[in-house]
Amino acid sequence: MTKNEKAALAGIRGIAAGIELNLLTRPAPDVPATVRSLLRLRLASWRVPADLAEDVLLAAVELVSNACDAAPDTEIAFRARLDPATGALWVGAWDTCPDVPTARRPELTLEGIDALPDDHTFGGWGLPLVAALAADCGVTRTADGKWVHAVFSRSPR
């Protein structure tokens, strides 16, 4: 992330009458919950319908959790943006890990579910879930990291 990007993301701020939410932070266990709380308030101020807001919140938490896991020792960023012309919502998480995330499709069998560890260290569900909820999702590389993002439309999927 460039110095200009870091400066632009320093703290939480609204741009152009509150159509953007930005957060720059160090990964910590409470970051996903913090993003969820802040984003819930912003989505309400944007008058996003409750069912769509829940999808956006779930995706945002997944993206931020993945960023925290991918780059636990560096800063991560979160951004949500409303396009007032179309009503589209863009949410993304930035981290310094150069690896592009890949969606895994865990195989589900009754025996496999019973064998999952109780400590919830298994994964592979997040990106397929985000892809199923969003109208579009993807990865954009930056000079020193990547944004993993999802786009939501107010129209039905």
From TrEMBL:
Keyword annotations for this protein, in alphabetical order, are:
Kinase, Serine/threonine-protein kinase, Transferase
Top-level lineage group: Bacteria
Q: Start and end of every Histidine kinase/HSP90-like ATPase domain? A: 33-150
Pfam short name (any one): HATPase_c_2
Question: Mind telling me which InterPro entries this protein's record contains?
Answer: Anti-sigma-factor_SerPK, HATPase_C_sf, HATPase_dom
Could you identify this protein by its name? Histidine kinase/HSP90-like ATPase domain-containing protein
